[in-house]
């Protein structure tokens, strides 16, 4: 039994004394201890070394006191396991020496044995579960197939992922083949995460909002739905689509336990669009953590009032930024814990 099960209760839609809180990208660069490790080990070494991944995963639990841990890893370990070379370049971010730009290149991408290629993730989960000692639940995650495709074709981060979109619209057959390979790998990968011990899963569709509603259905949602169908009976699944407010209605009928919302959609509107019954997670503007702690606390209480305390998980609308003072992240978490309806 998990001692602090607020997060799991909210995912089941149960009544809670206060909402649970965690922050997307909470295991990261705003933490001084994380920066110390970053000086010593490069990014994918940190992901591939279970002891380091465990140490980083538990940092925010001890330092800011979130109600759930999210495994330190990256969405891009999946395409790496599929045989694609991906580097993390300082000041650039994810970078591919050879982006995928043809049907031939898609054919060369493999659907791997996840236990062979990603065993280090499963080791990290087992080690982290021991370190957490059932204090709080552990979230596992994967990128959505569309978001992974964005990096594989574009070759790096982008403001509009124009090359990824161009490939989908000119070579739809190859694009769908690639999306299906990513989906099949992701389903096997996440089943392995559940076997290794994660208590919930989140699918990050960070670039879903780049697509029109019609293209979103074709190139993103269809594949996320397959992932939800395959996992929803094992653990609760959270679907987070940045900029995907237009899809909240369909997402609410998918079998996902909760939906992530970014800060461009008001809580009232998100409740309306998602039909009012499903648990929602979000949606504090990550930049608003730059406000003084007093202002943060006031705005967090307003956010909870607007979402309602039940069927709600307090979080940011996207990942925490590296320039956020730890005290401000702390104020965000404390504000949720101090909330009284
Ligand atoms: O949430 C957590 O704390 C768990 C760890 C986590 C990381 N990446 C660690 C990380 C998670 C859940 C991710 C997911 C991820 N990775 C997403 C989806 C979520 C989102 O924010 O949209 C995406 C798009 C990626 C791909 C990726 N990895 C990007 C765009 C970057 C940033 C590059 C940069 O330097 O700005 C990364 C690197 C990365 N992943 C960092 C961390 C802590 C920072 C780099 C470092 O620590 O060296």
What can you see in these coordinates?
Its main location: cytoplasm. This is Uroporphyrinogen decarboxylase. Keywords: Cytoplasm, Decarboxylase, Lyase, Porphyrin biosynthesis. The protein has about 350 residues and is of the alpha/beta class. The chain has a single domain (about 5-335), classed as Alpha-Beta Barrel (TIM Barrel), CATH 3.20.20. The protein is about 50% helix and about 10% strand. The protein has 16 helices and nine strands. The protein has helices at about 5-10, 30-40, 45-50, 50-65, 75-80, 105-110, 115, 120-130, 145-155, 160-170, 170-195, 215-230, 250, 265-275, 295-305, 325-335; strands at about 70, 85-90, 95, 140-145, 200-205, 235-240, 260, 280-285, 310-315. A seven-stranded parallel beta sheet has the order 1-4-5-6-7-8-9, sandwiched between helices. The chain has a two-stranded antiparallel ribbon with strand order 2-3. Helix 9 (about 145-155) crosses helix 10 (about 160-170), helix 10 (about 160-170) packs across helix 11 and helix 11 packs parallel to helix 12 (about 215-230). The chain is globular, with a radius of gyration of 19 Å. The two termini are about 25 Å apart. The chain binds coproporphyrinogen III (CP3). Coproporphyrinogen III binds near residues 38, 74, 93, 141 and 204. The site of coproporphyrinogen III has 24 residues, from strand 3 and strand 4.
